[in-house]
Design brief:
Layout: H1 6-18, H2 27-34, H3 40-52, H4 62-70, E1 75-80, H5 81-84, H6 88-95, E2 102-108, E3 113-118, E4 135-140, E5 144-148, E6 153-156, E7 166-171, E8 174-179, E9 185-188, E10 191-203, H7 236-246
Antiparallel strand pairs: 1-10, 2-3, 2-10, 3-4, 4-5, 6-7, 7-8, 8-9, 9-10
Helix pairs in contact: 3-4
């Protein structure tokens, strides 16, 4: 798939998707029912990331994967700070040590949206980790890949005896993105932004031994529970360029 054909292919995928659902439904309704801010353009990007990394060994058809993801068959929201409370404890209980890959979304007060596509498990560690295809990028207001590659993520937010606390993304001592241990601020190449919502999605089958009745859902910090977000638009040209550079080479 050539980068300059991305936009027309994306429109074709939209038409394919819309032709399989009730004619009275619209893209906006579908996005609302999906209960997330994942635009169809970004779902297409995720589809290519999953296909190129062979996440689903028995699924070879990108069209099929794209449609299933849009219908939430291959993706599950396992943490949403608006629903579960803005709690580091709850985030860890719901997401740690589950087989990935993961999509971690950070929504900010200045309308910036950042995301991490993590190949592997999410956990506290004294060493950087993440599979070779892991990515960190800004989605809004502009699509920018900030970091990629193996061992790009240092994530340690609760084990004080197991290395310094914090979240950092980068390689060879060059930190591209960092987040404080309370997950209140994200520091990026253009400054800092206040985080007001976090979502974490898991791709593939979802299994956990933690009983829902044992999960503590009390929020440690409550932050703007009723914040509303518009479905963001991804810069299609930047997206196409990134796909051409590293997903189909």
């Amino acid at each position: 798939i050539l980068p300059w054909r991305f936009i027309s292919i994306h429109k074709w995928f939209k038409n394919c998707l819309l032709s399989t659902i009730n004619k009275t439904q619209t893209i906006e309704i579908l996005s609302y029912e999906f209960n997330s801010n994942l635009s169809l353009t970004f779902l297409w990007y995720i589809t290519n990331w999953l296909v190129s990394n062979k996440v689903f060994l028995n699924e070879y058809d990108p069209i099929n994967i794209y449609e299933k993801i849009s219908r939430q068959e291959f993706i599950k929201n396992i943490y949403d700070s608006d629903k579960h409370g803005y709690s580091i404890v709850t985030l860890c209980e719901l997401t740690y040590y589950i087989d990935g890959p993961f999509l971690i979304m950070f929504y900010c007060n200045d309308e910036r949206i950042f995301a991490i596509l993590l190949e592997g498990k999410l956990m506290d560690s004294a060493k950087p980790y993440g599979g070779r295809s892991s990515l960190c990028f800004q989605l809004s207001p502009q699509f920018i890949i900030l970091e990629r590659g193996p061992s790009m993520l240092y994530w340690n937010i609760k084990n004080r005896s197991d290395g310094p606390l914090g979240i950092r993304i980068g390689h060879n001592g060059i930190i591209r993105v960092s987040i404080d241990i309370n997950m209140e601020y994200i520091y990026h190449p253009e400054g800092s932004s206040s985080i007001n919502r976090i979502e974490i999605y898991k791709f593939g089958l979802y299994e956990t031994s933690i009983s829902n009745s044992t999960i503590q859902r009390q929020s440690l910090v409550h932050k703007q529970q009723h914040n509303e977000y518009n479905v963001f638009s991804v810069d299609a040209h930047k997206l196409a360029e990134s796909i051409g550079i590293h997903l189909f080479t």
